[in-house]
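2024-03-11 09:14:02 INFO queue: dequeued item Membrane protein, len=402
2024-03-11 09:14:02 INFO validating residues
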Amino acid sequence: MHPFLFVLSMAVSLLAGGQTAQAGPHDAEFARFLQNEIVPAARAAGVSQAVLTKELAGMTPDTDLPGLVGPYGKGNPPKVNFQAEFRAPGRYFSDSQFNALVGPGRSLMNKHKATLDRIEQRYGVPRRIILAIWARESAYGRAKIPHDVIRVLATRAFMGQRRDFFKGELIAALKILQSGDVTHANMRSSWGGAMGQPQFMPSSYLKYAVDFDGDGRRDIWNSEIDTMASIANYLAQHGWTKGRDWGYEVRLPDTVSCTREGPDNRQRISDFVREGVTRANGRPFPDHELGQQGNILLPAGRYGPAFIATENFYVLKEYNESDVYALFVGHLADRYGNNASFVGDWKPTKETTRGAVRTLQERLISEGHDVGGADGLIGFKTRRSIGKDQEAKGFFATCWVG
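2024-03-11 09:14:37 INFO prediction written
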């Protein structure tokens, strides 16, 4: 028997026989899972026996992680609390958050000016966008990243809701350890398995992490330079268009319906200008943008600031599938220059719950609207469906609940 299988076999025997006082209720089953499912798959993917023996033997599941179901995914998934309060987008954009991030970001831009020049030249992504993602993901590396990624991924592969996904990520993480870029002790992650300062999943690390400081290792845990370049490479590989911004805050006249929101309703920015859309700060759109495509973005319908988003806004969403996330990054990137708030206000809105939103979505679906799924969250498809429903009933469309 191979040494790793022997170690696991002994662990199973000891745990099953109750010969360790600290054994958890799932430890023996977890050891069998690693032996029977992970080891063969990892070996087939090219992970060496030495790495498997060193990194997996004796590991126990972290049953304190949120969102677990039960061994082999058997059990009731955690219920979504649809009675929880639905948070309006404006709550994510307090000036205090941005003020706390702008100063350190500017300092880092000065510190790494020459390096950022090279990163921009190679990848075509503006430094302010790179720094804004770094800030959002880990507060420029200052946030605590406390978890053992191998244990997190193994636990989720064993008893999580997306077992196949986390099996793949676990094998990717073992490949990273085999490469020698990082030691197990330093390979820290969030409770969801996102690693290091840019919060890459292991598969993203393998695809997009780069060694830009030239020390022979892709170190997104300790190297600021590798972190910045890896973020830039990720965005470039996901289609960042060089020379374009993420978007612009605008004044959207009442004659332009909020029901036209969405990336599937793009048109030239010059056409929006002809319809009376202007930049909120009073400046004209850059000449090079006028012939380019953009779309209306209304994260809070008519109850919040309005934007014309470019395709780069949706590249930011490739990093995190959230309008609020991408807008936070874009707005912070703008504030590194002129630390100014949005021009438009986030107006008070009626308090509601995810359950109430889901009920509304279900009604809209029954009436033939495409809301993008009844999940209690208000994406652009739900917003414009609300607006179309309002217009059909003779009201001015706000594209927001209430």
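2024-03-11 09:14:37 INFO annotate: The CA atoms of residues 67 and 78 lie 6 Å apart.
2024-03-11 09:14:38 INFO item closed
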